[in-house]
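Figure S7 source data.
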Amino acid sequence: MSKITFTQLRMVFVLILFLCTLLAACQVNTAGPRVRFAEPADGATAASPLKVVMAAENFTVEPAGDVRDGAGHLHIMLDTPCLSPGEVIPKDEQHLHFGDGSTEAEVELSPGAHTLCLQAADGAHTALAGNGMTHTITVNVP
Ligand SMILES: [Cu+2]
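Tokens for the predicted copper (II) ion complex:
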């Protein structure tokens, strides 16, 4: 068995470097769609009406209507959990729809602790699948 030469070692090093670069590129490409509350922060204390700012990454926020891949509109569930993917989000005082494609809202809340769950749904209000399609926070209203 021959000894590993410097050239062979260098080739292995270059190969490892190449694989690392490839892996990093893949991670960037597979970054999934995500929605989140930009404001308020989780656990924040804030007065009512609560100013809410919603953000989306790798996801297009648009008015309800057409069902398109990678696009939809946002919802806030007030003191009730988000729905399972595939369920149609009801429209009532605990399920707020932003069917106009807006990403900012003012929400009236009673004093105390509240849970807000942000959920993305398609143009027909059907909850979308994916880890990043919901985001839950709690806020305290003095
Ligand atoms: Cu909706």
